[in-house]
Amino acid sequence: MKLSAVKYSIIIPMFNEEEVIEFTYDRLKQVMDSTEEPYELLFVNDGSRDRTAGKMAMICEFDPNVRLIDFSRNFGHQIAISAGMDYAQGAAIIVIDADLQDPPEVILKMIAKWKEGYEVVYGKRLKRNGETVFKKLSAKLFYRTLRTLTNVDIPVDTGDFRLIDRKVCDVLRGLKEKNRFVRGLVSWVGFRQTMVEYEREERFAGESKYPIKRMIAFALDGITSFSYKPLKIATYIGFALSITSFLYLLIVIFQKLFTGSTVAGWASIVAVNLLFNGIILILLGLIGEYIGRIYEESKNRPLYIVRDKLGYPESEGEREAADENSARVDKYVK
Ligand code: UDP
Ligand code: MG
């Protein structure tokens, strides 16, 4: 089969998923075979430290519809998805988690919507089965906060499980920012968008690759890439405090002039000092978050480094943009 004939590309980012990949592969294959149209399963191994890559390499050997992009180290979920978009060849591109939390069967519904003419079909989670109360609560809070803080209409309770048209994929590949919050970018680019609803299942096996530390980093990325409202907090607090201080100054002057009680007050000075210092440090940290990201962007390093590509016939290689990324890698490595 000629690669250019590929109609659907399924991108599956993987980080230490050895326990699930055979099952994921089987389910995806079943679903995609049922479309009776040419497709590719594009697995992106995000620097797994277990046998994920080895198992994938074996699958690649006997199934010509499977490809593997093997990263040189762990670059993160969002980058893995972005790499998938660089290498995907289909007319419609679908991103799905490797752990079967997003049921592959929903892809068929997405494809149906795509055929109706929609260019982005995102999956909206109706219910989350088998996730901890903490995860559910923090996710809810995150999506709501994000919505309040940003001007982009990012739909609540949607993950990266979605279908995008080739046109959308090409636009996304043109966005070269390093702090990638893919679901936000997809909303930002516009196009005709719609959703299908589904119930998020329990992880099939293994454990979540998003411990609390990563969840916080992810949330910060999401918010800072789409909003600078947090920076305005400094201005608001500054104003409020200045006005309060001014009023207090009037009181102090009044006391000095008309009463004799100006010496006492050690406690209040210390309290005010601590409070102000605290606020200043928090705001500095906040500004630092933004500056750090500006720094990241300005270095112009490649988004990711590929160690190996499997499942591509020799002559017909990867797409141009993928080459463009490797060109940047070459420049950087030399
Ligand atoms: N993942 C990845 N790189 C990472 C972390 C996660 O490619 O650094 C993949 C992971 O293998 C899975 C998807 O991203 O396919 C979602 O991760 P996970 O299921 O752990 O997240 P959760 O569902 O708990 O939010
Ligand atoms: Mg999961």
Outline the structure in words.
This protein has 334 residues and is α/β, with parallel strands linked by helices. Helix content is 52%, strand content 16%. It has an 8-stranded mixed beta sheet, sandwiched between helices. Helix 2 links the parallel strand 2 and strand 3. Helix 5 runs parallel beside helix 8. The radius of gyration is 25 Å and the shape is elongated. The model has no long low-confidence stretch (mean pLDDT 82). Bound molecules: uridine-5'-diphosphate and magnesium ion. Magnesium ion binds next to loops.
User: Roughly what is the average pLDDT, rounded to an integer?
Assistant: 82
Structural class: alpha/beta
Order of helices and strands: EHEHEHEHEHEHHEHHHEH
**Strands in their spatial order, largest beta sheet:** 7-5-6-4-1-2-3-8
What is the molecular shape? elongated
Portion in helices: 40-55%
Number of DSSP E strands: 8
What Rg is obtained from the alpha carbons, in whole angstroms? 25 Å
Bound ligands, each once: uridine-5'-diphosphate, magnesium ion
List the helices and strands and how they pair.
Elements: E1 8-14, H1 21-33, E2 39-45, H2 52-62, E3 66-71, H3 77-87, E4 92-95, H4 106-116, E5 120-128, H5 133-149, E6 158-165, H6 166-174, H7 182-189, E7 193-200, H8 212-226, H9 229-258, H10 266-299, E8 306-310, H11 320-333
Parallel strand pairs: 1-2, 1-4, 2-3, 5-7
Antiparallel strand pairs: 3-8, 4-6, 5-6
The protein binds uridine-5'-diphosphate (UDP) and magnesium ion (MG).
Magnesium ion is lined by residues 97, 99, 101, 203, 208.
